[in-house]
Every structure is written in C-alpha cells, then in structure tokens.
Amino acid sequence: MKPFQLFILLALLALPVSACRKQRSPAESSADAAKSTAPEPLDLAKLNAKIREYTEAFGKPPASLQEMVDKKFLPRLPEAPAGRTLVYDAHKMQAQLQ
Questions:
Q1: Helix, strand or coil for residue 25?
Q2: The pLDDT of residue 16
Q3: What is the rounded CA–CA span in Å between residue 44 and residue 42?
Q4: Which of 5, 34, 78, 87 has its Cβ near the most Cβ atoms within 10 Å?
Q5: Concatenated DSSP letters of 34-89
Q6: Which of 58, 72, 67 is closest to 95 using CA atoms?
Q7: Average pLDDT for consecutive 10-residue bins of the chain (98 residues)?
C-alpha cells in the first residue's frame, strides 16, 4: 500500500471517532460557568485558619478581611448565610457569625 493511500485510510478511520464526541449545549456551558463563579459556603474554621496563617506571615493580624483579599490570602470576601452577619474581631483574631 502506498503511503498516501495509508494516510487516507487512517484519516477515514479517525473521522467517525471525532464525530462521536458529545457536544455541550449552551445551557450546560452556562451552568458550569455559574458553578465556577458561585461563592462557596462559608467555613468559619477555614477562614479562622487563614487568619492565623496571615498573622504568622505578617507578624500581626489583618486589620480587616478586605486586607486579606488585597494581599491574596483570600480570593474574595466571604459571604455570610442569609439572615446572618459575618463579624471579624482583630483583637481575638477570629471571624464569627452573628
């Protein structure tokens, strides 16, 4: 078999495989995008651990949670659950819900 004929044969064999891939609908793509941008639930234990980590790194607690976002210790400000308020106490070096 000539090389060109072999190439054509392989190309024809590969064509059905590539055509069988599942196409994603726009709804699936937007749902995945919403999942990646949705804030994760507030975990006070993790947040307080990050506050301790920040304190060890800089030798002082952050003045605010926004300071931790500014210095890349947090990706964004955490959101409190509905009906609750997230309060940060720099003297106690902890966050809590009220």
A1: coil
A2: 65
A3: 6
A4: 78
A5: HHHHSPPPP-HHHHHHHHHHHHHHHSS--SSHHHHHHTTSSSSPPPPPTT--EEEE
A6: 67
A7: 74 64 61 57 88 92 93 89 90 90
Tell me which residue has tokens 């009220």: 98
State pTM to two decimals: 0.58
Count CB atoms within 10 A of the CB of residue 88: 21
Side chain identity, residue 23: Q
Instruction: Please name which of 81, 84, 73 lies closest in space to residue 65, comparing C-alpha atoms.
Output: 73
CA 76/CA 48 separation, integer angstroms: 15
Both tokens of 31, joined, read 């749902």
